[in-house]
Amino acid sequence: MAFVPARSHQPVLTSSHHSISIVAPPCLSLAAWHPTLAAGGGLAEFQGEVEGFTGERHTTECSQTGTGVALPPSVQAGCSHGVAESSGDGRAAGPKYGMVFDAGSSHTSLFVYEWDSDKENDTGVVSQNLSCDVQGQGISSYANDPPKAGDSLRECLDKAMKVVPAGKQRDVPAYLGATAGMRLLSSAADQVLAEVTKTMQEYPMAFKGAQILTGEEEGAYGWITINYLLESFTKAANIFGALDLGGASTQISFMPENSVMNWNETSKFTLYGYSYNIYTHSYLCYGQNEMLKRLAKELIVESSSSTQVDHPCYPKDYNETISLSSFRTSPCTNQSDPRLILGDRNVTLEGRGNASGCLAAIKKLFNFSACGQRQDCTFDSVYQPPVRGQFIVSANDFPSSPNVSPPQLSSSYPKENPERLPKYCANANYILTLLLDAYKFNETSWNNIFFQMKAGSADVGWTLGYMLNLTNMIPAEPPARVKGHIPSLWAAAITFIILTLALGLAALLLLLWV
């Protein structure tokens, strides 16, 4: 996939969200899980995340990370200066605005951005003016009733119209990008996109289209967002990798050590006079929500009981009843299996709070044997060069413990979403398995991982990179060639030259006169 900033308004690339600090009840033994890392102490900080949480759900700012580890100086510098806060002070050139809907698998969010029109090609000048979470699930959930997908956007669109001055609204570029949830739909996806398009066109803004991003585009735009916000492109700073742990898919994007790579996994960028070759890959059906569905299906298939099934990752005394027909709603679980007929029968999943059993069940979802002993392979025979550099990780949810009952969880962590609490231990094992066994972070490179949801005032997801590309705000040329010359400096220089010539001529005439 090639990326070269456009000179027109045609897209070049066509086609989460909370963090918590974590301490407390045991979920699994690190030594039992990964002896090498336990001995090296590299996972000491994240072990707190695996074992429990504070219940204080918050949006992570630059001074905080989900791991409790202080950000490196390069990140803190970018957080301090990489994004301008909205000033609202009536600057002479006047601000410009742009908006992007992130239509994810589990929810949709609207982001409104603002920047100074006279700094359009600089980095670090975009501020996030508004973040609005759409009520309900993702637009893909409206496959059987597409008009509701469009209606679901109205509340956030109304809020956006209140933050953008009326005189500027018709010039605001507006986009909707759909990700893995919509990639999983078939023919219904077109109708859903048609309905959200119809709704957005009712508002006084420059609607630029709704489209489904490929997984690689999602990863690449996330990589652009992070490095733009931290000013890595223009300050000769470290180039960060991006890890996105979404609901239906997960993405990894980074610059490998060597430039010779599998071309099917390479994205090319020319930004501010520099060329970048990054590895990017997306794993559909390996997002947290789809992982939980696949896990439930496998537990049911392997159970000797047809109506009651032990779930090692759920807390003790927690039960969940599901219909086998629910597996037909996603291509990730709809595959035919001779061991299970996907009828309308109900099955009750009974929590057992078994940490080791949970980990073993999660690992079965990854086909590690397909890679053999290859170190340039994650799972399912997917090529990946060794991870390199520092990574910013964004994730939908963070982990908890299966060893306490639901009432204890709810009373201990009243601010947490009660529907998510029972799933956190499965998510913890999933995240660790993905990062350590699949992506092959180790006791050294683990320290380069930072769970970060915001940089300055902006979220670190793919939406900002997407808008920067489609509005041509990242030039291919170096900043010096883009910015041109400052008129005031030119005026001063010309004045100085004229005065110098005038004085020289006067001196010459004086000498001739004498």
Automatic annotation (TrEMBL):
Residues that span the membrane, as ranges: 489-513
Protein residues bound to ATP: G247, A248, S249, T250, Q251
One term under GO cellular component: plasma membrane
BP term (GO), one: nucleoside diphosphate catabolic process
Listed InterPro entries: GDA1_CD39_NTPase (IPR000407)
GO molecular function: ATP binding; GDP phosphatase activity; ribonucleoside triphosphate phosphatase activity; UDP phosphatase activity
Coiled-coil parts of chain: none
Pfam assignment, any one: GDA1_CD39
Catalytic residues as annotated in Swiss-Prot or TrEMBL: E218 (proton acceptor)
Keyword entries, A-Z: ATP-binding, Hydrolase, Membrane, Nucleotide-binding, Transmembrane, Transmembrane helix
The protein's name: Ectonucleoside triphosphate diphosphohydrolase 8-like
Native organism: Athene cunicularia
